[in-house]
Amino acid sequence: MVQKRAEEKIIKDGKWKEFNRQGILVAEGIYENGVKHGFWKYYYDTGEPVIEEHFIAGRLQGRYTSFYKNGKLMAVGQYVNDSREGEFHLFDENGRPIKVLLFNNNILMEETIISDRVEKGIESSRN
């Protein structure tokens, strides 16, 4: 972890860990020239992972994953240039798929509720 001073500002650079007021780790990742870059992981105050995401030059890029406190998947999707893109899969607290959201440049284009499709006997082609 390196801090550089530029015009009275501290610029974060390198591996970084953030803690809450109780001293519990709530985030860790890498800064390059003051912006998030690479893999970042965020935690509940109880220590379990809540979000994993990737940055390129401070912008969300690539896989996004969020978790319930019990460790089960909550959501998984992709970011492109800081915008949600393609399918975001949502799950219940038991890990069962419940919804698929389709995004185009961060605009919700379609929402499919999985439980409705299963109840109606329709197979979902989305995974």
Lay out the secondary structure.
Layout: E1 2-6, E2 9-19, E3 25-32, E4 35-36, E5 38-43, E6 49-56, E7 59-67, E8 73-80, E9 83-91, E10 97-104, E11 107-113, H1 114-119
Antiparallel strand pairs: 1-2, 2-3, 3-4, 3-5, 5-6, 6-7, 7-8, 8-9, 9-10, 10-11
Strand count, sense and barrel status of the largest sheet are: 11 strands, antiparallel
H/E series, N to C?
Answer: EEEEEEEEEEEH
Structural Rg: 18 Å
Mean pLDDT: 88
Q: Which bin fits the share of residues in helices? A: under 10%
Number of strands: 11
Distance between the termini: 39 Å
Tell me the structural class: mainly beta
Which runs of at least 5 residues are low in confidence (pLDDT < 50)?
Answer: 117-127
Describe this structure in words.
Helix content is 5%, strand content 64%. It is mainly beta and 127 residues long. The protein has a domain of 84 residues. Strands 1, 2, 3, 4, 5, 6, 7, 8, 9, 10 and 11 form an eleven-stranded antiparallel beta sheet that branches.
In short:
The chain is mainly β. The protein has a domain of 84 residues. The chain is built from 1 helix and 11 strands.
Question: Which keywords apply here?
Answer:
single chain, 127 residues, mainly beta, 11-stranded antiparallel sheet, 11 strands, disordered C terminus
